[in-house]
Every structure is written in structure tokens, then in C-alpha cells.
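Hey, can you fold this one?
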Amino acid sequence: MDDQTISVFMTPILPGKAGLLRESAFSIDDKAQFFSKLGISKYHRWIQNIYNEHFLIHLVKSKDINAAFNRLKEEISKNDNIAKELRKLYLECLEVDLLGPHFIPKTKELTKLISMGVENENGAMVKEYCFVYPILPPKKQKMIDLYDDEKLIKKYGDMLDDYKEQVNNIYRFRGVSKNQLWIQETGSRSFLVIYQEITGPVTDARDKYLNVRDNELAMFLAQEFSEITGLSFEELLPNLESLIDFEVLR
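Sure. Predicted structure:
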């Protein structure tokens, strides 16, 4: 699995169609042979609600995602039942045609996949979560600057490595063992796309996020994200519904 590439992206859900996606939820295990034929080892999905607007968050793992979706198009053209059902579902709920060129939107990598080195001596559960934040149009450059090494060097100088380690310690405290960020452009809007791997109960991670008001750096970063996204401190905890195991995070 080490040679698998992580691809995360978001698709807006048409008004009133989130329920149909829930009803039509499927596990890759249910269709393992089909996805294996495409070259996809993992396809997880979440519904995220931001101010009553719903988004479908996709997590795909594959050696070559573009080749995998080209194979999917071939299966649709061959009238494969699973492929046809998926195309119909996404046309109806997302207004996206899997035979079209833009199912996988372009994303700009903001960070590499970072491993925090979280120890898991007790064999706690490790789960992946993906979600998005809206980026207010005037704040897009500020979002980019938060992760621009040249800008950070100017700000922190020789203390940059220490700053990054302090940030990583915040993630470790919450049990976030891996983290990666992208920016996605959708129509006229920009979104921050986030992939996280969490070691231990996600409820603990969320509680620890809410109880960091005495951590100056953690609160500074939360305030920066609130300014960039327009979301409050509490709203930065994503409202997510898994379409794999039906876990709901409010």
C-alpha cells in the first residue's frame, strides 16, 4: 500500500439530494472486485454540512487515479451494472457526469503528507477523515502564506523548525498522526481540503481541540483559520457523516 497515492476532493451536492446519497451508500468491500479491476484500493466518502450546504468528500487511494477513472469510463461504456449505477447516482445527486472530463477537480497541494510520529503502543484504532473548509475570497493568499516556507522563514527565521515542531505537537496531542492539505477551486469558490489520520477515538481528538484555550499557539492558529474561513472556533470541527460506516460527527 505504500505506493498508493492519496487523492482527496470535494463535490457540492445538489439541494435536497444528500438523503439519496445516504440511501445509496455502499462500501468498497461490497464491490471489491469491481474497484480492484479499476485499480482503486480505497474509496471512502463523507457528507459534510456547512451552513446547510452539503458536500460529498471523496478519498481515493490508487497507484494512478487518472488511469483508474479512465477504466471506470470504459466500464460505463461497456454497460457494467455497477458503473452505470454510480454514473446515474452522481448525475442525479452531484450533477457530475463520470463520462465527462471534470469529475476529479484540480487541487493544488498545500502541504506534503506529514507523519506526526504518534505512538500507538496500545493498538488504538486508526481512522482516516477528510473534510473541507470554505476560504473567503479575500483570504485565499493568507491561507497559502500560512504554509509557504519562504514567508515562514521571513517570519520565524532560525526558529522555523521549532515553530513547525510546536504545531506538530498540537496535532500529536489530539491524536492526529498524519495530515495533508490542498486547495480546491470549485466554480468561483475556493476550499481548503484536509486529510487526517487519527489514532484513538475521534471524540477524544475533538474534545482536545475544544480544550486548548490555554495553548497560545493552538488558539492563534484557530483564530487564523476562523478569519480565513468565516467559521467560528466551534464550527471548525467538521459536521461529517461517513457513507462507509455511518459514523456521524456533529
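The chain is about 35% helix and 30% strand. Let me know if you want another pass with a different chain boundary.
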